[in-house]
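Data card: per-record layout.
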Amino acid sequence: MATDYLRRGLLAGLAGGLVHGAYVAFVGNNLIAVAEGFEQGHSHGGAAVSEATTTAVSIGAGVLWGVLFGILVFGVGYYLLEPLLPGGEGTRSYLLGAAGFVTASGAPWLVLPPVAPGVEQSLPTGTRTAWYVGMMALGALACGGAVLAYRRLADRRRAVALAGAAVPFALLAVPVALAPANPLHGHVPAALATTFRAVVVAGQLILWGALAASHAWLVGRTDEAPRLDADRAERSAHHAG
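The structure for this 241-residue chain is written out next.
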């Protein structure tokens, strides 16, 4: 049965990665070229072959990242965590997608938001890496704490359960307040840097949203529902015991 979960994770990763790769190729790459042009003082007008190669590489990289996250998060992760996640089949997929975004990007970006090419950061690379990894760990803990809080309060009013689930995320404000300042320097205009940041954030939301949507569709297929229900009941009984 575990192979079914891995297969669904792989397929969801292929679909989500393709969507994300296309977004990077046709939206993100153009903005990167503009930012690099400001930094180097000239326009980045490439040949058609170069642009085609860049597009192919971006899509391929997106697919690879999608497959990686699909197998790890929606294959292995969903198999292990499904009995603990609240909600129905589709809800579980989207909750896992949200947790993936918060862990891989959302929480670390509270301290180290994306920066455009050509923008220099004041903090050393080692310090930034340590904070990024640390915030990833705290983001994962916040997601786990939110699920546990919701389950603990599930027998009360829904608003109370949701408020309890929000507390672990609110606690992320503590490390954010303690993080060292990281002034940025460069020739990229502030408006372009802000746009680049928004495009990167949107790209990650698209990636995790596409992964979750693809996985929810695969899980909800009627021909697999009976086997999923039987396996879920067996593993839920194991966790309860």
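Known properties of this structure: The chain has a mean pLDDT of 86. The first strand starts at residue 120 and ends at 121.

See the next section for split statistics.
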